Structure prediction request, 313 residues.
Amino acid sequence: MAEYKTPVLIIGSGPAGYTAGIYAARAGLKPILVSGEQIGGQLTITTEVENFPGFPEAISGPELMMQMRKQAENLGVEIVDDKIVEVDFKHRPFICSSENHHQFCGETVIICTGASARWLGLESEKKFRGFGVSGCATCDGFFYRNKNVAVIGGGNTAVEEALYLTNFAHSVTLIHRRDALRADKAMQERLSKNKKIQVEWDSVVEEVLGTENPLSVTGLRFKNVKTDQTKEIKVDGVFVAIGHHPNTEIFEGQIELTKEGYIACRPGSSRTNIAGVFAAGDVKNPEFRQAIVAAGSGCVAALEADRFLQEHK
Prediction:
């Protein structure tokens, strides 16, 4: 078992984590970043990124995360590929234990563990994830200009994604397992007035259809739960919008969480209810889920951690 000590311990390795590391390193704080289970975060399952500033040509999500990691390492961030499984925020310095039985001791902690999309759990969905199956219309909608797409879900997120996709797609099919949407009434009215969107009610997706070489989505098969009839439609993209869950399980009982399970921070800040513990990225912001937003909040968290350490010398 190894023991690591640092003024700034960063948990998580997506855009928020790497950016926090970059700013902390430039402040001379010798940060240690524990990468977590999904190194690079959710962008590692995104095929192309066109909306991150500084890249005139599209860059793949994994490549973008690799470049962020290299930049962080070049600036002096010590990155440990391990997963934090237990934390103790009762006293400073804070003690965190890892899956590989290492102990990390931080004068401050920046939590950047993100949020994970909820998936349907189909083998075919997993197979085509990143090759026509997506969990983010804002990220990938542009690639489906003049094509037919489907959105799975019935809440605000699903309706928002369906409406957003009409800016690009030729048609959008919303597939919902019930006979009424859970989305706000105003959102439902907007959806009903949009001629590009049609809804398949009482339907559950059974399989994502596609080709093997290259991997590409060509359609969906779903079943009406009331009639037991199955139906196939031709689509080029499938957007699963049944929600996200924040990766905060290990922080329960240690830090204040919202009723949805996200880390509660002071308005306009990365500060949590524990002095010296900060949060950045999707783990505290369920609304936008964009790499640039996460990166910006990682910067804020590092600056606030630096300020905290200066005040508590």
In short: The helical segments are 15-26, 61-74, 123-127, 137-140, 156-165, 185-193, 291-311. The longest strand covers residues 3-11. The chain has a mean pLDDT of 93. Residues 246 and 261 are 6 Å apart (CA to CA).
